[in-house]
Amino acid sequence: MNVTLQLPPVLKLTDEQEDKSNEITAIPALLELLDITNAIITIDAMGTQTEIAKQIIHKKADYVLALKANHPTLYSQVKQWFETAVADNFSGIDVSYDKRIEKAHHRTEIREVWTVPVAAIGELYQPKLWAGLQTLVMVVRVRHLWNKTTREVQFYLTSLNSNAQLIGRAIRKHWGIENQAHWTQGLYLCGRCLSHSFFP
């Protein structure tokens, strides 16, 4: 297991185990090694576990956890709720929205982020299991390449307040590191103390 520190503005933890099942046990051990006070922790779906969320909150940090089908009931509920809300243009819902367009190397990427307080969804499936959970997130990522267009929809759980710009930047940092080191399992820390322009 390797731990790589890259400063500033991103502190990156990497676990090079080939078996991804090891990530669930490796992440708590890595978190325990570090002072993560006032950091934002972003973790891929494999590490989206209630005990990991609890550990992050206990260590006075915030989390952004990818939500996928490995939590089928919660994932289906959040996905369906956002699909309905989008169709209704988020009518009557306290929603935060951010849109970014980036162009580079014959590629245009459009990222849209919607964040809503947990209370907006009503009866969320077992919300008390997720320590500190405040906000649900949907990200739509459309990439126009020279020969094709791709569209990806992702959902997240976060202990941060509903702020699409802030949460979107944290997720973008996570993607950026993945693009630079695609072989690395995904656990990254974006520290408030490391970049004042990113975390005022």
Task: Describe, in plain words, how this protein is organized in 3D.
With 200 residues, this protein is of the alpha+beta class. An 8-stranded mixed beta sheet has the order 1-8-2-3-7-6-5-4, with helices on both faces. A hairpin with a 4-residue loop joins β6 and β7. The radius of gyration is 17 Å and the shape is globular.
DSSP strand count? 8
Question: Over the alpha carbons, how many angstroms does the gyration radius reach?
Answer: 17 Å
The assigned structural class equals alpha+beta
Query: Strand-residue fraction?
Result: 25-35%
- Integer average pLDDT: 80
Indicate the topology.
Elements: E1 11-13, H1 23-33, E2 39-43, H2 50-58, E3 62-67, H3 72-87, E4 96-104, E5 107-117, E6 135-144, E7 149-158, H4 164-180, E8 187-191
Parallel strand pairs: 2-3
Antiparallel strand pairs: 1-8, 2-8, 3-7, 4-5, 5-6, 6-7
Keywords for this entry:
disordered N terminus; 4 helices; 200 residues; 8 strands; eight-stranded mixed beta sheet; alpha+beta
What would you say about this model in short?
With 200 residues, this protein is an alpha+beta fold. The chain has helices at residues 23-33, 50-58, 72-87, 164-180; strands at residues 11-13, 39-43, 62-67, 96-104, 107-117, 135-144, 149-158, 187-191. The protein has one domain (11-194).
